[in-house]
Amino acid sequence: MRFWIFVWLAAAAVFVLPSSQAMPDPHPPEITAPDREWVVKWKGEPSFSFLETVQVIHRSSARSSRQEETLLVSVKEGINQEEWWNRWSRHAGIEYLHPNHKFETADQASEPTAGNWDEFYYLEQIRAVEAWKVFRNKHRSLPRRSGPVIVAVVDTGVDLGNPTLRPLLVPGVNVKNKSLPPQDHLGHGTQVAGVLAAVWGALTEKAPVGNGRIMPIKVMEDGNDGDVYFTAEGIREAVRRHADLIVLAQGGWTYSEAIADAVREAERAGTLVVAAGGNASYDLNGNLLHNRPLFYPAALPEVLGVGSVRMDGTHDPSSNSGDGLDVVAPGDFIATTGTSADMRIESGTSFAAPQAAGVAALVLQLHPEYSPSDLRNLICQTARKQKGEPRWDEEMGFGLLDAYRALTIPLSPDLSEPNNRPELAMPVSLNQPVDALLSCSDRDWYQLDLEQPGTLVLQLHKLKGDWKHSSIRIEIMSEGRSAVYPLKEREQIKVTAPPGRVRVQLLGAGRMKEVYYRLSATWMPLGDSYENNDYEWNMADLQLPVDATLYEGTIHKKGDFDWFRLVLPREGELSIRVTSATPRMDPLLLILMEGDSKGVLIDAGGEGEPEQARIRVKSGSVCLRLSDYGRNVIDAPYQLLLHYQPAGPVKKDEQTMASWK
């Protein structure tokens, strides 16, 4: 939500700052801040001194051989949260510590348009009906699995008494309260499960196709109480209960190490995670705020990220787009099960993701040897695109989910071919690994389009074979420069690049055998021109804003704090507004006046929403600290808008750069 915060702050004493030889970790100011929940993972047993500072809300039931433990905690009353975070986030025994970000379901309101249309049109659109015929024929001739393929629905639970779903259910769990069943009281999880059942023919055929089963994992009650901690716990519960696939029709824009950690655990256990890309956000007047990037966990490299298309197969503007999108499926007016045995019509990427999970479950029944990466690659490889469309793009990913092609086309070891010429370069998405083959006479071309200047990090992991004397060539197209690097067993190459296209060429060496490799690309923003300004003692001085003045900065590293100072010549009014171009950032604004040891933390908005304040001030210094709520690296700049209105006319000598001596 958004509103202006009016704050009375006065400079009543001299503000003494440490010298340049001050400690690099100064005592943080006391801050008026809302209570927060924190997710912390210890590498071993939590220390007693840590437990003395927190209230433990929940302990993870996941315990590894190293006795790692993940907890959900809140800081005890009277403890400075900033000081607490500064201390424990750097502790050698802690793997990660971050706020318990909220997750939301990825559905949206839907009202079917007038006219005649088949309520199960989406099954035709993804060619499920054709796939069922193929499955029945192949299933007779192929060796059978010893048991069913289980898809865990990590959501609001499932209606355990639904007559359509009941025969397909296996025992699940209510993660928040294990003494209660995973019964769905909202309906969202039941609707997601219903789409899974529909892809298996349970809503239209006499009997379901194949031997798929649904495991209800309840991690939220009303769709508004979702968070990363219990969703990560739900993923781990599904893995412990031997789910083959997990579908997540929920998420958020903020990166969470807890979710990434749980997803990696699922991948190692052989469980594929399928997640909805999320829906666009709108203001109260219906104006679009954000429809990119993708929600997490859909944007994670180990996850099959699914967006949605409209009934005519074109991109749905309400479906989030961006790096990490793998495939799309119908998301408009999807017929599915509801609670009380009724049928529902729903819309959103929540109902596209289970279509992909349902198809993957059919594939896995025919190919139990497939790994999670094999399933991801096959679903992407067999997705359908129109002739002339790019092989991958931010709105459609690799194309429309195609169940028939997924069951009839063999898995290819190289999704990128043909890409042996620059004009055939394979588009590469950030944080989306590409598996490919390189031979002695081969040339593999790739291209990336960067929106901001930064550091491009290319990771090349040799999975099988020998690079011999192979090499990689990187071309910065806008600058006309290139560089060639020899390839080693595991290579990481960092290149500073401006916005624009970057081309990558892998060159095979003579007499080498085929090399099976994985290419992934990540990107890091550059530090802004005000760095280094991470602490109170080295804050950056800003030009006194007579009119509205815009400053731009970056959160270029984890836990980055950007400190700024203004020296105001007289009393007046200062307006402050912090905005970000991406909902990946949830801005935090700390205002600290000269002589004030407490400060005020402005945190009224959420992901992608501005923080703003109008302050009546007296002469002296005003210090501002900008950061991200999640302490994450942010892939787009933020803007700081300042407007100072002094009480009375402005003198010429008051328009100079403020300096601190």
UniProtKB/TrEMBL annotation:
Signal peptide region: 1-22
Catalytic residues as annotated in Swiss-Prot or TrEMBL: D155 (charge relay system), H188 (charge relay system), S350 (charge relay system)
Domain (Peptidase S8/S53) ranges: 149-399
Keyword set includes Hydrolase: yes
InterPro entries, sorted: Peptidase_S8/S53_dom, Peptidase_S8/S53_dom_sf, Peptidase_S8_His-AS, Peptidase_S8_Ser-AS, Peptidase_S8_subtilisin-like, Peptidase_S8_subtilisin-rel
GO molecular-function terms, A-Z: serine-type endopeptidase activity
Biological processes annotated in GO: proteolysis
Keywords of this entry: Hydrolase, Protease, Serine protease, Signal
Family indicated by similarity: Belongs to the peptidase S8 family.
Protein's name according to its UniProt entry: Subtilase family protein
UniProt lineage: Bacteria, Bacillati, Bacillota, Bacilli, Bacillales
